[in-house]
Prior knowledge:
This protein is of the alpha/beta class. The protein has helices spanning 15-27, 38-45, 64-74, 89-97, 110-166, 173-187, 192-204, 214-217, 225-232, 234-242, 249-256, 278-293, 304-313, 321-337, and strands at residues 7-11, 31-35, 52-56, 79-85, 102-106.
Amino acid sequence: MMAKQGEILIVDDEEAIRRLLRQKLSGEGYHCQEAGNAGQALEKLKAGTTELVILDIKMPGKPGTKLLPEIKASYPDTAVIMATAIADASIAINCMKQGAYDYITKPFNLDEVSLSVNRALEKRRLELENRDYQQHLEQRVREQADKIRASFFNAITALAYALEAKDVYTSGHSQRVTEVSVDIAKELGLPKESLEKIRLAGLVHDIGKIGIRESVLNKPGSLTVEEFKHVRLHSETGERILNPIAEDKEILSAVRHHHERYDGKGYPDGLKGEQIPQLARIIAVADTFDAMTSERPYRKAMSREAACAEIERCRGTQFDPEVADVFLEVWRLASKTA
Ligand SMILES: [Fe+2]
């Protein structure tokens, strides 16, 4: 007969009984070991390969009832079947409450013994499989979530590229705004989750510019009042474009409000101070700084020092003073190390 996988430990103080069980179960292909008392049993269990223990309730020294909880504590995946004289049935039932799978009564009906062993090992196998499946499932859910996050990031990046293809002056702008925004957010001690959000929002904060007429977008001279109004729509347009893919309200509001001013004179909603979402207040500083220091069709780039002075001058009016200070701090540190 093919050897079955099950490794069984027979714990009984009577050698004749051990031999009887061993003969029967070995004959069925199980690999059997014997222990005459609790100490020997614990010694054999140390190998960690025992799948099932047949445990005599009444033994000199430590009885099976005392050994059972020790086995369950140290080897929770090992199945235990209690062996008892009929008179001990209530004790055996108690043992099952403590985690024994079954109990068999003496004198043994060997067919019942083998049935019980089969059932216990099958039950154990299913339990282990089930646990394995659960663990696997959690892992798959985690992997799935990572994939979704990655494809969201890719979609956002594709949008940023789409804008750059249309407006050469935003080329590199979104990336730089993102880097500076993340630096400020880090310095402000924002949690990791917010850093990821500001990274995404930074990349697409100007995505609404896709909706700006090219004649206006690349106009070399200054804009008319009407053209200004048209350009200003880009923050609302951006929110609308992102709405179907970015369920995250913080990202959407960071895009919508990146041109609000701390003193309430910005657009589109004229929000003031802390009413403006923090991510938008951060992007506003990074965005303005990068705009000032980049060459535009209608003006030359400002020096970084001059741009910093401008940020400082506008702290508390255009910019959140705390964010402006942190930006200047980060900027000074960066230029020192550069
Ligand atoms: Fe913008």
